[in-house]
Specification:
The chain has about 280 residues and is of the alpha+beta class. The chain has two domains: about 120 residues, no CATH class; about 100 residues, VSR Endonuclease (Endonuclease, Chain A), CATH 3.40.960. The protein contains 13 helices and ten strands. The strands form three sheets. Strands 7-8-9-10 form a four-stranded mixed beta sheet, with helices on both faces. Strands 1-3-2 form a three-stranded antiparallel beta sheet. β9, α11 and β10 form a beta-alpha-beta unit. The protein starts with a helix and ends with a helix.
Length: about 280
């Protein structure tokens, strides 16, 4: 005999009652499974297994599936706004259900919505509609770097973007170490500055960017450059680069995200010096 918990798990972990009733489960069978703690009732007509994503369950309580940056974080993709409330895709004609402590952002994007966490491809398309070019570009490169986007998926995402935004996919690369690098490269691209990316310099190692053959730009993510030992290694690298005739500019997470107004003129001034 089929087990409702196993069936719901195989259907994605969060389902509407009609999905499992199609397998012969009656209301009383589902009620017994809830009473036994084998499944959980999220709201009227919606059930989940205990191991389902907590944020996916919140999204189902709200009326749809977790999407945008909220979903990408679940897929371990870099996102620009990590503090945003849950973004929930309820479909074009979906209904929002108020629930306890609800701070969800509702999206009525086209398509047949479902429960759980949307796939990376869908989340990226929704992210562009929701948050724009920079957020999309950084997350797109991160997903590509992690091997989460096939060539076919990248082509479908490109086709789903507005024509004016498809160039973002065209200039994307699969080797960005962090979203900070992606943001920096995108912003400098818009200024007409060409960057050589992930350059290995003998005696120095691999650096994030080289501009005009003499200016090194490093984007120091907060997860990779905290601590005195890493700071010491960075200073040694910068000194080695200086001996070879390079100037190094190093920017941290806060500068790139929150203080670009000081980062951009610093880069332009350094570029003017190395080109003089």
């Amino acid at each position: 005999m089929l087990d409702p918990a196993i069936t719901i798990a195989r259907l994605g972990g969060i389902v509407r009652s009609e999905q499992v009733r199609a397998f012969g489960f009656t209301r009383s069978m589902l009620a017994r499974a809830v009473a036994d703690g084998r499944i959980r009732r999220i709201r009227a007509g919606v059930f989940a297994v205990p191991g389902a994503s907590a944020l996916g369950i919140d999204a189902a309580a709200h009326g749809g599936a977790l999407t945008c940056g909220s979903a990408l974080l679940q897929h371990c993709v870099w996102v620009l706004d990590t503090e945003a409330p849950a973004h929930v895709w309820v479909g074009r004609n979906g209904r929002v259900h108020p629930h306890e402590r609800c701070t969800c952002v509702s999206h009525f994007f086209d398509g047949a919505t479902r429960f759980g966490v949307v796939d990376v491809e869908t989340a990226l398309i929704h992210l562009h509609q929701c948050a724009g070019d920079e957020s999309f570009f950084a997350s797109f490169e991160s997903a590509w770097r992690k091997g989460l986007l096939t060539g076919a998926a990248r082509a479908r995402i490109r086709d789903a973007l507005p024509q004016s935004a498809r160039w973002l996919v065209d200039i994307a690369r699969p080797d960005a170490d962090s979203g900070l690098e992606s943001l920096l490269r995108l912003r400098l691209h818009l200024l007409g500055i060409r960057l050589d990316c992930q350059v290995r310099i003998p005696g120095v190692g691999r650096v994030d960017f080289v501009v005009a053959g003499r200016l090194i730009i490093e984007a120091d993510g907060k997860e990779n450059h905290d601590g005195s030992s890493q700071r010491h290694r960075d200073l040694l690298r910068d000194a080695a680069a200086s001996r070879l005739g390079y100037e190094t500019l190093r920017f941290d997470y806060s500068q790139i995200i929150y203080d670009w107004a000081s980062v951009q003129p610093a880069i332009l001034a350094a570029l003017a010096r190395v080109n003089a």
